[in-house]
Structure formats: C-alpha cells, structure tokens
Write a structure and sequence with these properties.
Blueprint: H1 2-18, H2 37-50, E1 53-55, H3 67-77, E2 91-93, H4 102-115, H5 118-122, E3 127-130, H6 141-149, E4 151-154, E5 169-170, E6 194-199, H7 211-221, E7 226-229, E8 238-244, H8 252-257, E9 261-265, E10 285-288, H9 293-302, H10 306-320, H11 334-344
Parallel strand pairs: 1-2, 2-3, 3-4, 4-5, 6-7, 6-8, 8-9, 9-10
Length: 357
C-alpha cells in the first residue's frame, strides 16, 4: 500500500511539473520516459513486489572498491529482491572481483555450470554481473557466454568495445555532494549570466580525449559566454551544462536537479547512456559534435527556443530523481531504476520453468 501511494504521489508530482508545459497542448504530451507514465509507474510497482534475484556465493571473499559498485551491491544485498530459493528467481547475480583474470573468471563460470542447473538453461542469459570497466571478448567458452549472454552492469561511460547495447546497463553517475532536489516550477533561467558551464577536469585534458574535444575546450575557455570551474557550485548561473563524453560525468544528475539543461559533446552515437531503456534522452539533453568548434556549439544552443528550453529543463528536473544514490534506497532513485532495467530484461530469454533438484 505504501509503495502504491508513493507511485501515485510521483505521478501527481510529474503532472504538476508539466502543467505549465501543457498550457498549449501538442499532439504528444512531453515526458522524460520512453513509455507513458501510466505504463512506467504501474510496471515499476509490480517490479517492487514481484521481482526476485538469486545471488551465487562469490568465488572468494571480496568487496567492491568504488562508490557506485559498493552502493549498488550493498543496496541489492539489503533489498527485498533477494531470494534464497533459486526456483523463484527471475535473474541470477554472479559476483566476482574486478581484478579476476580471464582464467579465474572461466573457472568460476565453469563451476556454476557444473554445480548448478541454472546457467545451462539459458547459457547465462538470465544472469547478470557487475564490472566497472566491463569485460572484453575472449576465446574461452565460459567467458564468451558471460560476455555475450549475461547482463553486464558497468560504469558510464564504458570502455570502448566492452558494452553490448540493448543487453548491458550502465550505473547512473554518483556525485559526492548532491544539492537538494530542485523545486517544481523553478523560475525560468532567462537571467543566467552564461550560456554554458563546463567543469574543469584534468582527466578531460588527457590523451584519451580527441583533438577535436581539446580544440573545442580551448575555444570555449576564451569565450566570455562560457564559464569554467573545478567544481559545479552555482549551476543556476548558466543555461546549459556541458559535458565531454568520456570526461567527468559524475555531476549529470546534479545539473538536472537544479534545472541546467545538459549538453553532451560527442563525435559518435552514444549507446551506453544510464537508464537508456527508461529515459528519453532526446527530451532532456542536447547532443552536439566537437568538430564545428565553438561557433557551431553556440549556433546550436542559441537556436533552442524558450519553449523547448523550458520543456527540456522541466523534464530534466523530473528525471533527476532517478540519478540520486541514497544511503538507504528510496523509491525511484538510482538503485531502484537500475533494478527496473533488470526487471525489463527478465523476459529476454524464455524457458520452461520446472523444479530443479
């Protein structure tokens, strides 16, 4: 009953946030979700009451060492989703440390194959695992099945080649000092002092960035319409918050919460966005390539009219709650939305259920 009340409350909040956007109705009402809210919320509620996960014992005692992995793993172990009965499980969790060699990982999967019946039923397709950088293809049969069939949960952005779209999931970035959730109907950002803000990051200047990215950043640093700082302290001073794909993306959720519209700078399509099965990213973010320089960037951003800007800003505030990692998971936060993505994958492979002895 409490969860149902929460679902209704969130739906009402969603509608209240969109009221000013719907003053002039359009054929398709704006929503940050790929499916209508009337579909997403009831299905989410069903997930919270029905979804079951069975976790294997790890091959050795270990702890995840990074905050996003630790948050997800601890939340999972203390959640209502775990079951001790593998026959009622929808999915199976395969825990192993990030420093496992290919040979060690192969032996672990081999042992699961030999000691339990569940892997062989689907060749691992109803299993999932956490790997910060993802795992690469390998000629070993066990590792290959894990790579190709099991759902991988990794960091965003992922290592090139280690992510399979429509199967794998990325964790929403974790920001260490999030601000309170932006209030509904936050005033329009028309008096912003800057067109865009970008966080200065040493990693963003590393060799991993393309020359086009570096050139664009250098041009922006010399343009008074863009602000730079080592920490995103007052994002309300800028209409847009700019991110280099591959750079520091930990404050994506923070930007959305305060109503700063996201701009992702990338020279290729992005297929590993967090919550990509749930959130309609084209409604909350602008994607632009770096090759046109600061002139093209300003042309794209200046071409976004007030109506579209306010719609993106409002929808970003709605979606921001799904990027918050709480010490104790709360409905619709990052942990629950990662679980919802797993829930959506429970029917990827169907098989005849029967009792296994």
């Amino acid at each position: 009953m409490a969860m149902a009340t929460t679902s209704l409350s969130l739906l009402l909040l969603f509608l209240s946030l969109l009221t000013p956007l719907l003053a002039h109705p359009t054929p398709l009402q704006p929503s940050p979700y790929l499916s209508p809210p009337t579909v997403v919320f009831p299905d989410y509620h069903k997930m919270t009451t029905h979804f079951k996960i069975y976790t294997y014992d790890p091959p050795k005692s270990f702890h995840f060492t990074t905050p996003p992995e630790t948050k997800f793993h601890n939340s999972l172990l203390n959640s209502q989703f775990l079951t001790r009965n593998p026959n009622e499980a929808h999915l199976f969790f395969v825990p192993f440390p990030h420093d496992f060699s290919t040979r060690q990982l192969s032996r672990f999967i081999r042992d699961l194959r030999q000691n339990f019946p569940y892997w062989n039923r689907t060749l691992g397709a109803d299993h999932f695992f956490v790997s910060r950088a993802g795992i690469a293809y390998a000629p070993d049969r066990n590792v290959l099945e894990l790579k190709k069939n099991a759902v991988q949960i990794s960091f965003f952005p992922t290592t090139s080649g280690n992510f399979i779209p429509h199967k794998d999931i990325t964790l929403p970035p974790l920001h260490s000092n999030p601000s309170p959730l932006a209030l509904p109907h936050a005033p329009a950002n028309k008096t912003a002092s800057f067109l865009g803000f970008m966080k200065l990051d040493v990693k963003s200047q590393s060799q991993s960035q393309s020359q086009s990215d570096k050139s664009l950043v250098q041009e922006m640093e010399g343009d008074p319409e863009f602000a730079f700082a080592s920490e995103p302290l007052d994002l309300g001073e800028s209409r847009f918050c700019l991110f280099l794909y591959g750079g520091d993306l930990t404050w994506v959720g923070e930007a959305m919460r305060v109503g700063c519209v996201l701009v992702v700078i990338t020279d290729r399509p992005i297929q590993d966005l967090p919550l990509i099965d749930v959130v309609r990213w084209s409604e909350i973010a602008v994607f632009v390539g770096p090759r046109g320089g600061v002139g093209e960037l300003k042309r794209v951003l200046s071409g976004i009219g007030d109506e579209r800007y306010e719609r993106m800003r409002g929808l970003g505030v709605v979606a921001a709650q799904h990027f918050v990692w709480n010490a104790t998971p709360q409905p619709y936060d990052a942990f629950y939305m990662v679980m919802y993505q797993l829930w959506l994958r429970r029917h990827a492979i169907r098989y005849a259920r029967r009792e296994w002895v």
